[in-house]
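Many introductory courses stop at the sequence. We go one step further.
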Amino acid sequence: MSKKLLAAAIAAALVPTAVLAEASNVTMYGRIDYGFMSRGGDSGGNSQAGQTGRQNGFEDGILGTNRIGFRGSEALGNGLKAIFEFEFGFAGDTGQAFGGTSNRHSWIGLEGAFGTVLGGRVDGARYSFVGQYDPFKNQTVANAGSLFGVTSGLGQADRADNAVVYISPEVAPGLKFLAAYTTNLLGEDGSNPLAAAGIGGNGTDVDAGDTPLYALAALYNNGPISFTLDYENLQVKRSVANGGSDLEFDLWVVGASYDFGVAKLSAYYENVEGDDTASKAISESDGWLVGLTVPVSANFLLKASYVKANDDARNNADCKKWGFGGEYSFSKRTTAYATVAKLSADSAATCAISKNASGTSGTATANGNSGAGYGDTGFNVGIAHTF
């Protein structure tokens, strides 16, 4: 085949793809992040998990998780649009998908004058709100969410499976409302992901171990002011033959920030509490943070935060952490960063230093195998690029 015929064949093959991409308005985006992280030290709590020494290693996804995604929309007429987004995580330092799963989130929905409705695997509400008001956005060794996840006894649901979400249009300048529901936060209905923990039980009840959750939130973002009020109700279904009545938890979140121009001040508070004696034994906690972000120049940011997390379900299990960091933007897409954090914990606390709010990723391991947080001091440096 001549070069001209080959070029014509390739062009003909690409035409349908180009037309489809234009008609569907599909955008590809992503992020890759790589750096160095060091953790160690023992404040007297359980952050070392019986291990000694300092953990040093090259690490990916420190300032933000590595990902590649696609989002798009299609105009359906009369102001109605179909929308979708799916995003995959990956490890930039090994050949494995991030966190053992390649699907960070994936949803499809409709958008119109009535607001937005979508369904699928979505970002967790509480997790997202912590990240909104944490200067470190749930990332780096200074992240706040990992402490709240430990002291609440419920972890951090960074994603919600099987979810349906409604977001209202603006009912006043800057003011929207959100409602969300999932039949099982942690997997497919009836899959009983909590059986290994002995919470749901293995009885005949088809929904034993399921974790239905609903959330209601008011969101205000107008100019320099941001305010969020969120209520969530989480249940853990239990087999009557293996544990009795369902567990139930109420979660309250309040967050606010004000951008003064020369600096942005943010604050966050959460309260998590079980509804009965059995539930309170698992979770009865509260926590707060204050944060400061200072744009020293057009390219350089300084950040600081203080986090306090209280576990009232267990004695001597409270945690607190200071974090300081800086980011230098070479461009809108490429950023260098450095962060340091110091944590102190009560004798029975299990909070530790991790690179993100889920607290379950990083080179260092607890008990040698889980990849959980480690130590009470940490620092990281790295570079990130988005596209």
